[in-house]
Each structure stands twice: as C-alpha cells, then as structure tokens.
Amino acid sequence: MSSLIHAETPPRSESFVELEHVTLTYGRGEKQIAALGLTDLRIKPGEFVALVGPSGCGKSTILKLVTGLLKATSGYVYVAGREIGAEPVRVGMAFQNPTMLPWLTVRDNVMLPLKIVPPFRQEYRAKFKTEFRDRADALLKEVGLANFGDKHPWQLSGGMLQRASLCRALVHEPQLLMLDEPFGALDQFTREELWAVMQELWMKLKPTVLLVTHDLKEAGYLANRICVMRTRPGQIIDDAEVPFPRPRTIEMSYTPTFVSMTQRLRELIVSERPVKETL
Amino acid sequence: MNEQLRRHMASTAFIIGFFLLWEALCWMFGISDIVVPKPSQIFVTLVERMPALWPHTLQTLYTTLVGFAFGIVIGILLGMLIGSSRLAYDVAYPLLVGFASIPKVAVVPIFVLWFGSGTVPAILTAMIMSIFPIVVNVATGLATTEPELEDVMRALRASKLDILWNVGLPRTMPYFFASLKVAVTLAFVGTVISETVASNRGIGNVMMIASSNFDVPLVFAGLLILAVLGVALYAVFSFIESRITGWAHRKDEFAMG
C-alpha cells in the first residue's frame, strides 16, 4: 500500500505562490541551456513544500524565480495573486552559505531585514535599540545563540552561522520563506537539531515555505508536500503530500512508512536520472 | 601587550639609529654642510627658524588637506560610478589611467595659467595626485562585492541605493582606507610640487629659495617637516581605518567594542 496521497492542485484563488507555464533558459542561440522546462506549481498559504531532485535539476532556479532573483524566460510567477516584484509580501530567504555581512555583528546581521523591509524600515531608527533588538535576541536565543549577538561572523562556527542565517530569514515574520539547502553544509547532528528548530518556528509562525534540498529525510521530516524534479530540462515529475502528524520527531523517520516513502522518492529520482552514455 | 611594546621599541630604536649613523658618517668622512648637513645641524636650524617656518608649514598642511578633501569626494564619486557600471568602467578607465600617467609637474603651469599662482593650483595639484588611488580602490571594492551578499538584499526587495549603502560601501571601506593612506602622502607631493613651481608661500617655496641660497640645512629642515607631516597624517588615517574596518582585519578590540 502507498502511504502517499497525491496532492490536488489547489484552485488559483487559493494559491499563495503560483508558477504558470514557466520556463527558463540561459544563453542564446546554439549555446542555449534549458534550466527549467515547462513548469507549473501552486502552493497554498501556510504550506511547507520541499523540492527534491538530482543536482542541476533547477530546484534553486525555482526558488530564485519565486524570490525575484531570476526572471522567467516565459510564463508567469505570481505571489499573493500578483506578478513577482510588485507584491506586498514579506519574503525571507536562507541560502546554502550563511552569507552574513562580515562588518556587522551577528545581531545586526539578523536585524538587517528590519532595516530594509517595510513596515519595519520606517520604524528602524526609533526601535533598533529597543524592540527590534529584543526581537533579534529572542530569535537568537531560540536557536541556541543567546550570548553570541555581539560577536562578529568570523568568530562563530559554520553551524552557528547557519542558525543565525535562519534567524535573519525569520526576523521580519515573512509570509513567504525560501530555504535553499540551508542545512546542506552541516554535520548530521547539527542538521537534525536545526530541523527541529525549523519545525517549531514554522508551527508557530506558519509562513509559506519552499525548501530546496538533496536530503530526502529532511524533506520528509519538514515538508507537508514533496515535489520531485528531474533534470534536463528541469521539471516537476511527482507531487505528493506527507501525511505524518506534527510535531514530527527523528524517531519517526525510522518507521516503515517513512522509510518506504523516502525509498519511493529515491527510486523516482534515480530512474529519472539522465542515462550516461557508455563508450 | 608585551609583544607590542617590544615592536614599538624596536622601530623607535631603528629610527634613532638611522639618524645616529647619518651623523657618524658625516663626521667620519668630513662631508660638507653644502652637500649633506648633519642631523644635529638640521635640528638646530629647524628650532632656530621655526618662527619663520611655522606659517609655511600651516600653509602646506592646509593646502594639502583641502586638496585631499576634494580628492576624496571626487574619488569616491568617480569610483562609485566606475565600480557599479560596466559601461562607465570601460569608458572611463583608459582615460583615468592615461591621466594618471601624466607627470603632475607638467600640469601645474596649466593651473597657473588658469587660476594664477598661489594656493589654488597647489590645491588642485594635491587633488589630482590623490584622486587616482582612491578611484581605483573604490571601484575595485565595489566591483568585487560578492553577488551572494547582494542576493541577500535583493531577496528582501532592497533598492539599488539600499544595496549600495548597506553592502557595496561597507564592503569597499577596507579598500578605500588603504587608498587613503597612499593618497594622503601623494597629496603632499602634489602640494609641494606646485609650491615649488608657482607660489610664494608654503614649504615647497621655502625649500626652493633656500636651495638657491645654498642654505642646505634649511632645505633639509623643510624635508624633515614634510616627512613628519606625512607620517602624522598617515598615522591618523591608519587609526581611523583600524576603528572602522577592524572587521576586515579581524581585530579583537573591534569585535568587543
């Protein structure tokens, strides 16, 4: 039996993020590379969607399209019913690298979105030493960095920086959270610890999340819905809901249903891998 | 701290040793004052003539700082333009390099032609001397800003100005201050060149008159004043640099303060 219920595509009015017939190609003429084939994706408000697939399949491309860092070659990207760029939506993003600004303290790095994003931006001068500072400190405490706000990024380890980077992605209470393999460079234990932190924060704030990852266990632990992509051209080939109740635990990931789910995803990805030409 | 003290003492000892050696060599080989005066003699001249030299010192310092200030403003603006636009980079860079290769002595007569002799050409010469390193460094700093850091801002829907102000400029500060230390000494060179050619005030002018009178100790006293001023300004900018861009050097006192 399959533990997976195939997700129904939500009607347009209900979706928070929508990709409509989107493609993306790099370069021109002969050298053209299709990074993303015809793709449609709809995400409901408050959903936690994971994108998995082999490297180079365009997972990060989708993320960058939804954040507005890349422009679609054709098709449309809507966020909150409006075309990307004009929407009054707060977006938070965590990258594979912590990308902290080295001249700021960890706390100031976490507070950066408050300095840029309205409506916080207008109040930044008045509140950066009081309310905003407390808010950053509270988040840092939640990820276990209570006493590190005054440190500079080079004084922290990679895992600590990644936690700070999560704080920065969440500090302005984004309605849309983009996670581009934020746990990829961490060791197994730190990773599992941060999954729990992430789940807790998500259950509390309920942002719409789009997570790109290589790790099927991570996708199963965190996401409500997993989209599998294949490469060349990048395309979504499977879209399934994850039925496990919250809060999920690491122990859950050793249960037979969980294991069979990740196995199914794994087989899908492997079977869709481009066949290597033999000599 | 002990280590630091030892380093300071070593460098002080070396400087004093340099002057002692100079003095000793002058005595040993009986070198005439007209050729190379002894440091002790230069020092005596400096003290005796100080009332006359002081206004000229202030004039040179003032001219240099004004020229340098203009150089900083124009240098930053040009650097920002060149560093943030590919087109401006391609267009302006060859021109800038060409301009920088012109010997500034050749430019002073043109300034004198336009503005008359005196303070104005000296300020302008100091300015054009100091612009080049500032432009190059600011442009380099901006052009080499990591795209990942900009992506952090772009994901937050930051405007170009926001990105420049919060990422581009702070990222460029270490480059900028490195260039200031070079530029301030160049500004002195510019001022003195112009004063030597076309002015009746300033250390450059004093040295010019002194050398035509074979008053070599006074020439050397002028050189000493210039050297001291140069070192002092260099030290000032080094200090400001370490306060502002300590993050780039990973200074502990910066991290704590």
Q: What attributes does this structure have?
A:
heterodimer; A: about 280 residues; alpha/beta; Rossmann fold; 2 domains; six-stranded mixed β-sheet; four-stranded antiparallel β-sheet; disordered N terminus; B: mainly alpha; MetI-like fold
Q: Layout of SSEs?
A:
The complex is a heterodimer of chains A (279) and B (257).
Chain A: E1 17-26, E2 33-43, E3 48-52, H1 59-67, E4 74-79, E5 82-83, E6 91-94, H2 106-116, H3 120-127, H4 131-142, H5 158-170, E7 176-180, H6 188-205, E8 208-212, H7 216-222, E9 225-230, E10 235-241, H8 256-271
Parallel strand pairs in A: 3-8, 3-9, 6-7, 7-8
Antiparallel strand pairs in A: 1-2, 1-4, 4-5, 9-10
Helix pairs in contact in A: 2-3, 2-4, 2-5
Chain B: H1 2-29, H2 39-84, H3 86-101, H4 108-115, H5 119-143, H6 147-155, H7 160-197, H8 203-212, H9 216-244, H10 246-249, H11 252-256
Helix pairs in contact in B: 2-3, 2-5, 2-7, 2-9, 4-5, 5-7, 6-7, 7-8, 7-9, 8-9
Describe the fold and architecture.
The complex is a heterodimer of chains A (279) and B (257). With 279 residues, chain A is an alpha/beta fold. Chain A contains 8 helices and 10 strands. In chain A, helix 2 (106-116) crosses helix 3. Chain A is globular, with a radius of gyration of 19 Å. With 257 residues, chain B is mainly alpha-helical. Chain B is built from 11 helices and no strands. The two termini of chain B are 18 Å apart. The mean pLDDT of chain B is 88. The chains are: A alpha/beta (279), B mainly alpha (257). Chain A binds chain B through residues 67-69, 85, 91-93, 95, 97, 99, 101-104, 112-113, 115-117, 150-152, 154-155, 168, 178, and chain B through 146, 148-149, 151-158, 162, 166-167, 170-171, 173, 245, 247-248, 250, 254-256.
- Overall geometry of chain A comes to globular
Task: Give the number of domains of chain B.
Answer: 2
Q: Could you say what the CATH topology of the largest domain in chain B is called?
A: MetI-like fold
Helix content of chain B: over 70%
Q: C-alpha Rg of chain B, in Å?
A: 22 Å
Calculate the terminal CA-CA distance of chain A, rounded to whole Å.
40 Å
Give the overall shape of chain B: globular
- Assign the CATH architecture of the largest domain in chain B: Orthogonal Bundle
The main β sheet of chain A shows up as: 6 strands, mixed
How many individual domains of chain A?
2
The CATH architecture assignment of the largest domain in chain A turns out to be 3-Layer(aba) Sandwich
Share in β-strands of chain A: 15-25%
- Specify which chain pair forms the largest interface: A-B, 26 and 24 residues
Helix coverage percent of chain A: 25-40%
